Amino acid sequence: DPQPVSPKQQQQQQQLAAMNPQANIPPPKSPEEQRYIPPVNYRDVGKVMAKILDSEVVGHAMPFEQRETLKKKIVPGKLLRGGHIDFLDDPRVICNPRTILNLRFEADRKKWEGYGVRYIQLTAGKAFEKYNIETKEVRDWMVATVKTISFLRRESLPLFVHCRYGKDRTGIVVACILLLLGFPKYIIIMEYLQSVEGVVKQKWIEKILNEMPDDPVLAREQFPGTNFENLEHLFR
After folding, report:
1. Domain ranges, ordered by start, for the chain
2. Fold designation for 7-234
3. pTM metric for this prediction
4. Percent of the chain scoring above 70 in pLDDT
5. Rounded CA gap, 52 and 194, in Å?
């Protein structure tokens, strides 16, 4: 049975609806309907970041020039995220990604290669649930995933990153990319909190971010082998 929605989640849902109305569609009533509904917590990261950077809160904290520079680092239509897509039959529902990155243990049921989509699966260990990158298993997975993304070609975009609910494993990967591209941590947290399906707690992503330097140059030292030159221009 669905859990009752808290006032905080209601507020987050309203904020998400303003930023990405497509992600706020009510749950479908039948499997047939579900085939044409975006996955839970689905969103275009570039669109969401633009909305956040244009928000009044960020406008008071960050100069206009800096906000415009950050917008150019990840533009709409390049990086998509969300929950599992086992029920989907049509890639147009998730904006026709050319690459799908599955972070779950389970393989996607659909053989997306038949649609001309490159399919990558990189699973995280169970220890990741604790958001503890001091655990070697989690740290190695995180570094390997970011490294894989950093070597994608622009022709491989849009990239759709997903796990079961599109908030935990996916949230970690997107947060790492944003940090390495130079986004401030408080902006990254705002993007993370756009997920409203499932339990989402700010302290979880803060735990990850607090274990990495604020300076993206120093943070990059924790991601050996990553193609930062390509990553810097990948989502522009």
Report:
1. 7-234
2. Protein-Tyrosine Phosphatase; Chain A (3.90.190)
3. 0.84
4. 81
5. 10
